[in-house]
Amino acid sequence: AILIFYICINPDGRDRFVYWFESVKRSIPAAEPRDMEHLEPWPGGRTNHYWFDLNRDWIWGVHPESRGHTAEYLKWQPQLHTDYHEQGYNSNYFTMPGTTPRNKLLPDNYEAYSDTIGRANIAALNANKVNYFTREAFDFFYPGYGSSWPSVMNAIGMLTEQGGGASRAIETDDGYILTLRQRIWDHYTTSVATIDKAVEKKLMFNRYFYEAADHRNSKSPTKAYLIEDGDMYTDDVIQMLLRNEVEVERLASAADLSEVLEYRSGRHISKRFPEGTYIIKTDQPRHLFIHSVLSPQLFIEDSVMYDMSTWSAPLAYNLEGYSTEENIIVDVARVTVIEPEKGKVIDPEAKYAYLIDWNQRNAPRALSMLWDKHYRVRVAQEGFSDGSRDYGPGTIIVLLGRNLDKSSSWQIDMKEIAEKTGVIINGAHTGRMESGRDLASRQSHPLKAPKVALLVDRPFSSYTCGQIYFLFDQETKFPIQRIPANMLNQSALPKFGSRYGTADLSEFDVLIVPGGSRLTQVFDEKAQDHVKSWIQAGGTLVATEEAAVLFTDSGDGKGLTPVKTIKSPEDTSRTGKILRFEDRDEYFGKKRIPGAALNAQVDVTHPLAFGMKRSLYSLKFDIDGLLPQLRLESVGRYADDSSQLLAAGYASEENLQLLAGNTFAGVSRLGRGKVVFLVDNTQYRMFWRGPSRMMQNAVMILPFVQ
Q: What are the strands of the beta sheet with 435-436, ordered from one edge?
């Protein structure tokens, strides 16, 4: 046997944890659960530098840590992979098999073969009188874990979970002292048992790997998936597929295909696909991965799940996706690499202005660079045309007459920005447009680099904070200040306290408030009054997830805005009234939405949606929503017809009827300022990218467009 060990896939989190623990440990191990030795500070050691859970990133490779260890995995193609974790200290040891739902595309003998290892672990645990459980708590439906990604790579992927904690010893709820030594021993015991059984059954596992890789054994009738080129995040998806060793092709010429499933409408259509359309055929060894990641909907046998119920890449990146059960016989060219977007300046010797269409992938980064170079910039509120090219709302305008102090470097700067960001910059010789507003119209608004504060630390979600932080720090290259919530508590609003004094809230143009729990700890009634005054004076408050509900008059905020939230009707059914105790978890579990994709429409004329498409898949984890009303500018709304609302995943008919036609993204104006409501996470794990331009717009454009 060849054994490959990933000792640590999260070095940043490990270092953070170790340095903290070394600073608080006692000479006598603290078994008391309330001792600070067990109370790891925010954001904890589970997440990396940007506060992401890397055990959800195996598919997407958003982070270099993930791209590194998956690339190493693919060099070896293991037949067996076991993921070692810890769970809450009051839980006993978990080993295979897990619970439902399962990825039903996996070979039928996956469960039995993983149970072979599970039973070997059980025998070893029995011999050592270690408490354990199986067949509950952990499913393997989402294929982005370290335990499930190997399974769609044709291996037997498995999970073990040791009850644990942040210490050398801790007293469990039954009075047992669980030690670090015991936890190490338990994992060691199952490791040896797994290795022994793997060697004993190596021919069985080799045969499984071989048969799983054979596309003729696929359970899916789909022969190919098609993705149109030209969307904002198309390259992201193709790069992800190539990293996972998927064979990708492109149409060498336009082709007519019939009976293709159109993801957007859910209908089978005939369509002429243009040259350059990407084709991912399924008659290849990665067929399990391809079906699991590109299919719009997987079979769900149980709606109560551990993670999310959909992750389809064409939906997550808001692409135009299709599939077909027919063999495609067309001229194609193999794709082996996706080169970064090559930006350029068209007509660099412009006499009047330079223009950047906002519908480009890295247009926000280009705007950030313009601000860094101290250019005076404007944004077009409406679309226009110069006669040869159409420009959409949100187009960035650099008027040369407003930047005469930089005349010696105009061409050099534009060339550098285009090349570094990959955007197309167009030169203009006149401000008069053939249609629409002229370039210096009063409807093109000056944009200044805003000063932005992002609230972090408890009680805010470290995951949501990290995703917003990453979006601006890594991708947009635009600075935002991370302000700990306790600094807000320790000072009288509108001041943020700091070690070196205070920073007045009035110094900021934008305040981002992420989701979390018990947010009234930060925003009590008095605090909201101060924030309201700041907004009325011209500030922009961007509230996401739970925070979006807080600042309505239906949340605990007691009416910062007049915006109303939808109300879930009381369950008056007889079933609910006479529910048996053992059925309660399943009953209420089916009432929640475990990460489903909902069809939505976007008002692309609104600054919050500049650069976006009119149709969007919004990722939903709850039943929160805003009621459309005159005082709310509804920018993103769920589909009106509840029967057409669910694009993928699971949501009950009751919840779909509740959400249909309501708002998930909107703006309410207070005095000279604005409150932006983003009820759904717009950059979830940085792979659900379709809505993420809304967050960039809320920070970079909306504060300056009335």
A: 390-391, 384-385, 435-436
Asked if 397 contacts 355 with a C-beta cutoff of 8 angstroms, the reply is: yes
- 488: phi then psi, degrees, rounded to nearest 5: -70, -40
What is the residue-averaged pLDDT of the chain?
A: 93
Query: Phi first, then psi: what are they for 396, rounded to 5°?
Result: -85, 130
Q: Identify whether the C-beta of residue 161 lies closer than 8 Å to the C-beta of residue 99.
A: no
**HSE toward the beta carbon, residue 414, CA cutoff 13 A:** 27
Tokens of 359: 């519908």
CA 658 – CA 21 distance, rounded (Å): 46
Enumerate residues 6+ apart whose C-beta is below 8 A from 71: 243
Nearest to 700 by CA among 506, 543, 472: 472
Contacts of 643 (CB under 8 A, 6+ apart): 656
**Contacts with 107 (C-beta within 8 Å, 6 or more apart), sequence order:** 208, 211, 212, 217
Report whether pLDDT(556) > 70: no
Provide the token pair at 568: 């879930």
Tell me 19's DSSP state: H
Q: Which whole-number Å values give the CA distances from 141 to 148, 286, 494, in the listed order?
A: 8, 18, 46
Residue 269 has pLDDT above 80, yes or no: yes
- HEC sequence for 544-605: ECHHHHHCCCCCCCCCCCCCCECCCCCCCCHHHHCCCHHHHHHHHHCCCCCCEEEEEEECCC
Q: Give the CA radius of gyration of the chain.
A: 27
Instruction: Read off the pLDDT of each residue in 408-419 and give the average, rounded to a whole number.
Output: 97
Do strands 384-385 and 501-504 pair parallel, antiparallel, or not at all (unpaired)? unpaired
Bridging pattern class, strands 452-456 and 510-513: parallel
The residue written with tokens 């293991």 in the block is: 78
Q: Which residues of 197-228 are buried (b: 16+ CB within 10 A; e: fewer)?
A: bbeebeebbeebbeebbebeebebebbbbbbb
